[in-house]
Specification:
Family: Belongs to the PEP-utilizing enzyme family.
Shape: globular
Distance between the termini: 15 Å
Helix content: 40-55%
Strand order of the largest sheet: 7-6-5-4-3-2-1-8
Largest sheet: 8 strands, parallel
Number of strands: 8
Order of helices and strands: HEHEHHEHHEHEHHEHHEHEHHH
Bound molecules: phosphoenolpyruvate, magnesium ion
Protein name: phosphoenolpyruvate--protein phosphotransferase
Subcellular location: Cytoplasm
Length: 328
């Protein structure tokens, strides 16, 4: 089917009933940018900036970060790129970044990582903010924060970026035409204060990898649990459906950037819940686009309510049967 997927490269990700799905790819290194042209994706929905830190023996200085971000924006051209600030710490520990004597954490996924580390070690975050802002001079900068659990973390991160923007501007250097701020939703607690955060957000992106492990209290790296909790479990689908309705009602764009969206049946379920932006691994673009182009989204959205009314266990069987009998 590879030739069939390649032939779809220039065809839009549009359902049979004319719903346009924004199909973006996840990236993290310069070389990943080639995937945009290979897949015909609409942009980079998640650029994991920590990759540069993870492959580096020393802390990447501002100049090196800036060069990477500028190259990425140049490669993307007029397609959007969403840069996620570093998600390091915890299990993605860096030898050159020590937390202190108590660096060893019993539950690193629940630990001192991502925005938690960024706001405390704010010198690191300021350097990254300046690199991103300078790299995007004269363009739009999309910034997204990882592991936000409460609205104040988002507010502080935005304030830090705005202060750096002002500093750079005051020193006569170019700044972005606009900075759009968004957050990942991967810590379930954030959903409980979403109403307070939505008026401040330019976009929201659901990270289903961490969200699933936190919702089910099940380590995403533990193979013993890999088969046990399914992305098509009612708890996850109901959660995502509720957040999606609430976010869309507030007029805020919402997408999914976890691995869930890269599997055709899971991606179908997400569209059934109202999601119209997916950011996925490049190899999944062909299969997911083929699914989208064979789907009647309105019919699926109607069927979805019925499936979610019987929340006993995974809806995989129901959704697969629906796909089969509806020619998806
Ligand atoms: C996620 O948690 O779903 C996500 C996209 O981020 P990462 O996989 O980098 O933790
Ligand atoms: Mg995550």
């Amino acid at each position: 089917r590879r030739a069939e997927f390649a032939a779809m490269r220039d065809l839009p990700a549009r359902t049979r009933d004319d719903l346009r799905i924004e199909l973006m790819v996840n990236a993290g290194l310069r070389d990943d940018m080639a995937a945009l042209d290979v897949t015909g994706a609409d942009g980079i929905g998640l650029f994991r900036t920590e990759f540069q830190f993870l492959v580096s023996a020393t802390l990447p200085q501002r100049e090196r970060q800036l060069r990477l971000y500028r190259d990425v924006l140049d490669a993307a051209g007029d397609r959007p790129v969403i840069f996620r600030t570093v998600d390091i710490g915890g299990d993605k520990a860096l030898p050159y970044l020590k937390a202190g004597d108590d660096a060893d954490e019993e539950n690193p996924a629940l630990g001192w990582r991502a925005i938690r580390l960024g706001l405390e070690r704010d010198a690191l975050m300021k350097v990254q903010a300046r690199a991103l802002i300078e790299a995007a001079a004269g363009r739009t900068l999309n910034v997204m924060f990882p592991m936000v659990s409460e609205p104040w973390e988002f507010e502080e991160a935005v304030a830090l970026f705005d202060a750096q923007r002002k500093w750079i501007h005051d020193h006569g250097r170019g700044v972005p035409n606009a900075i759009r701020y968004g957050t990942m939703l991967e810590v379930p607690a954030l959903a409980e204060s979403l109403d307070m955060l939505l008026p401040r957000l330019d976009f929201l992106s659901i990270g289903t990898n961490d969200l699933t492990q936190f919702l089910f209290a099940a380590d995403r790296a533990n193979p013993k649990l890999a088969e046990r909790y399914d992305w098509l479990s009612p708890a996850i689908l109901r959660f995502i459906g509720r957040v999606t309705r609430q976010t869309r009602a507030a007029g805020v764009p919402i997408g999914v950037c976890g691995e869930m969206g890269g599997r055709p049946l899971e991606a179908m379920a997400l569209i059934g819940l109202g999601i119209d932006r997916l950011s996925i691994t490049p190899a999944a673009v062909g299969p997911v686009k083929a699914m989208i182009r064979s789907l009647d989204a309105k019919a699926l959205r109607e069927a979805m309510d019925g499936f979610l009314g019987r929340p006993l266990r995974t809806l995989r069987g129901d959704l697969a049967a629906w796909a089969e009998s509806n020619g998806v």
